[in-house]
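It is worth pausing here to work through a concrete case rather than discussing structure prediction in the abstract. The textbook approach is simple: state the sequence, then state the predicted structure, then interpret. We follow exactly that order.
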Amino acid sequence: MNKHLPTSRAADLKQAAAPSLAIILLSRGGAYTAGLTELSDLAARLEAAMRASGQLVQQVTTAYVDRAQPTLGEALDLCSEARSILILPVMVPDEASLRRWLHKLIMRWRAARDSSQPSPRLVFGQPLLQLPGLTELLARSVEDALRQPDVPEALGDDPWERDPRGWSLVPEHRQHVLWCVGPRCAAKGALQLWPVLTRTIRDTPGLKNHLQPLQTGCQYPCNHGPLMIVYPNGVWYGPMDADSMATTLTGHVLHGRVDADRRVHGPEALRRP
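Step two, the predicted structure:
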């Protein structure tokens, strides 16, 4: 490229040379890695099928609304060189309010980009259960499904009468940290901070055996996210970041102090035993 071209012209040429389309398969996250693997495998199969048909696709990647990474914002960054980005929701059910907020998140991502760079066209696909032909596809799958083994055969020797005794044991802890990984907190970095939270608890003397971290869905005061609640005291803290994590937790759990700078809701002071 001619280094003397105006910046805007150079950017236009770069965009014109880019593959025309990137696709993001968007789902809800979960507690199990199998679901993440299956979605990644689906993305790889879709990308291979599109390229085999001659379509100019930059990539097909995955993103998650909550509970898993990459977030939608991270996936958009990854696909930002494409001229068009298609976001295909593969989650069930479709929630109109969530979809509306995701549209806002996409627009905020676009607004935060360098204005000197060309902005890709952003398209949000039709919800999975509203796709044309889905009913016919399911009907065609019935015969294949009925060829699968009966449930007892599928279980084999796996004991089904009772669950392991260990599932009755309560972990040793005095308090819970409820860490929000709902859609809006996830978009604000809660998933990236989860390892910081668990590492802080693991590596800080006095916290490991007395504090149990748990991920939750949306806790609702989203503007304060990333958000955490310490129970049984019921103190809500946010927005949390890596620098404030250890100070807030050690002050609360070990010294009985509420972090006034991070407190969103709940007691301003803790009762000491």
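Step three, interpretation. The mean pLDDT is 90. The two ends are 71 Å apart (CA to CA).
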